[in-house]
């Protein structure tokens, strides 16, 4: 779209940029949504300036109704950055949206000032500017929500990864300390991680320690049995350790058949058994002197 | 006609399955293997499947069959080199290959066989 000269808002921004900026910042302060604790004044100021700059250029094209068009691309990019950085600092959605919406008052004041003679034009310009700023405000809020969701997803992923480490206890002996509730998704990851490590290290023993698993129900038991079966198919024997008294009771009450899986009360016991199977033993060399 | 090669390694037979098996190939393998076991009188068979990335219930059954046939002929079967994805698939399919021993590698498989056959680890044919 081409630049239209008959564009009041663009002119206003051009002529009164400094005052608009000052009024805007004051308005943000007044509503109490400025959050000086989360953002430095200088940074805020430069963001406002950039906004005004891009607003000036974009409104020059005369399209107030749809901000998803190419003319508004730079503005969308700026607002996406503004929104994302605020998400990370802990702003609320209202505080982010108010960044845009607080601009209404300064702009309206200027419009009233310039168009006192022409009521029809004033009404038209007021409508155009409010609908535009609303769109921008909504855009900023949507980006905010999307960014928040991304953070949550990333944290979930990290938690998933952190909570299933496979550690090497000794040559040929791996340990898998499981912590937290085991659901299908986690157990899948546990199984894949364990089997991958088995293949890479060639370990013949894997100790699954469930000290950190609060409850064991039939589903969890199924998952554990599958993991053990899969490891066995590859040629590794699994020992389950860290079984608490309550869990032992639950397993029997549920009628879960652990078949011939070796179980030990503590990781230490399981480790000792694994060593023995490899023909190793731990001696206290000091006593022998 | 393609055949799956069966190699003799000392007192064991080594079968390396590298291609997708279809009916005819599986039948041929069973024939060849049983003949070979009787001819050589070996007491152990290693089935090496580290090249197999996909295993279905058909192969699962074949492996089970081979193990049973070998046992009847007084030879023990050990499956070696199963990949993680394959192990997971077999478990999910409910084929846990009971009665078939497994090992991580050919080397470990041979140690396993020797131990269970009561041969000392130094003895080699």
Plain-language structure description:
The complex is a heterodimer of chains A (289) and B (125). Chain A has eleven helices and five strands. Chain A has 289 residues and is α/β, with parallel strands linked by helices. Chain A folds into two domains: 149 residues, Globin-like (Orthogonal Bundle), CATH 1.10.490; 111 residues, STAS domain (Transcription Regulator spoIIAA, 2-Layer Sandwich). Chain A has a five-stranded mixed beta sheet with strand order 1-2-3-4-5, with helices on both faces. In chain A, a hairpin with a 2-residue loop joins strand 1 and strand 2. Chain B has 125 residues and is α/β, with parallel strands linked by helices. Chain B has a five-stranded mixed beta sheet. In chain B, helix 1 runs parallel beside helix 2. The longest helix of chain B has 18 residues. The radius of gyration of chain B is 14 Å and the shape is globular. Classes of the chains: A alpha/beta (289), B alpha/beta (125).
Task: Give me a quick take on this structure.
The complex is a heterodimer of chains A (289) and B (125). Chain A has 289 residues and is an alpha/beta fold. Chain A contains eleven helices and five strands, in the order H-H-H-H-H-H-H-E-E-H-E-H-E-H-E-H.
Q: Bin the helical content of chain B.
A: 40-55%
Shape call of chain A:
rod-shaped
Specify the CATH homologous superfamily of chain B: STAS domain
Q: Which consecutive residue ranges of chain A, at least 5 long each, have pLDDT under 50?
A: 1-5
Biggest contact: A-B, 18 and 19 residues
CATH topology of the largest domain in chain A: Globin-like
Q: Assign the CATH architecture of the largest domain in chain A.
A: Orthogonal Bundle
Query: Approximately how much beta-strand content do the residues of chain B carry?
Result: 15-25%
What is the residue-mean pLDDT of chain B, rounded to a whole number? 85
Task: Give the oligomer, counting copies of the same chain as homo and different chains as hetero.
Answer: heterodimer
Q: How does the overall form of chain B come out from the CA principal axes?
A: globular
Task: Tell me the CATH architecture of chain B.
Answer: 2-Layer Sandwich
Helical/strand content category of chain B: alpha/beta
The overall strand count of chain B is 5
Can you write the helix and strand succession of chain B as a string?
Answer: EEHEHEHEH
- Side-by-side strand order of the widest sheet of chain A: 1-2-3-4-5
The average pLDDT of chain A is 84
The helix content of chain A is 55-70%
User: What's the structural domain tally of chain A?
Assistant: 2
Strand content of chain A: 5-15%
CATH topology grouping of chain B? Transcription Regulator spoIIAA
């Amino acid at each position: 779209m081409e630049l239209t000269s008959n564009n009041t808002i663009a002119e206003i921004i051009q002529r009164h940029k400094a005052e608009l900026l000052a009024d805007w910042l004051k308005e943000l302060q007044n509503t109490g949504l400025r959050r000086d604790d989360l953002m430095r004044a200088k940074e805020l100021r430069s963001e406002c300036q950039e906004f005004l700059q891009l607003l000036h250029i974009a409104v020059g094209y005369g399209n107030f109704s749809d901000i998803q068009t190419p003319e508004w691309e730079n503005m969308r990019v700026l607002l996406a950055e503004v929104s994302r950085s605020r998400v990370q600092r802990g702003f609320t959605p209202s505080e982010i949206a108010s960044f845009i919406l607080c601009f209404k008052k300064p702009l309206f004041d200027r419009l009233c000032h310039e168009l006192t003679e022409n009521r029809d034009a004033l009404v038209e310009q007021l409508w155009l500017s409010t609908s535009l700023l609303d769109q921008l405000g909504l855009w900023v809020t949507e980006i905010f929500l999307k960014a928040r969701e991304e953070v949550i997803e990333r944290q979930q992923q990290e938690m998933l990864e952190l909570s299933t480490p496979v550690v090497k206890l000794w040559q040929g002996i791996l340990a898998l300390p499981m912590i937290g509730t085991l659901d299908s998704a986690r157990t899948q990851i546990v199984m894949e991680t364990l089997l991958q490590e088995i293949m890479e290290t060639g370990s013949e023993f894997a100790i699954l320690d469930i000290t950190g698993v609060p409850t064991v129900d039939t589903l969890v038991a199924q998952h554990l049995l599958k993991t053990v079966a899969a490891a066995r198919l590859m040629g590794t024997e699994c020992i389950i350790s860290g079984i608490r008294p309550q869990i032992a009771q639950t397993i029997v009450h549920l009628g879960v058949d652990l078949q011939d899986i070796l179980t030990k009360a503590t990781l230490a016991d399981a480790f000792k058994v694994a060593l023995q199977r490899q023909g190793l033993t731990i001696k206290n060399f000091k006593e022998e002197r | 006609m393609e055949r799956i090669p069966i190699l003799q390694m000392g007192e064991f037979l080594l079968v390396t399955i590298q291609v997708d098996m279809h009916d005819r190939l599986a039948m041929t393998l069973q024939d060849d293997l049983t003949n070979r076991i009787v001819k050589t009188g070996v007491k152990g068979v290693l089935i090496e499947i580290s090249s197999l990335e996909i295993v279905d219930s058909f192969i699962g059954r074949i492996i089970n069959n081979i193990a049973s046939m070998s046992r009847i002929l007084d030879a023990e079967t050990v499956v070696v080199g199963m990949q993680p994805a394959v192990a997971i698939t077999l478990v999910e399919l409910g084929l846990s290959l009971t009665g078939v021993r497994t090992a991580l590698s050919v080397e470990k498989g041979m140690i396993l066989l020797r131990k269970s056959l009561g041969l000392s680890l130094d003895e080699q044919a």
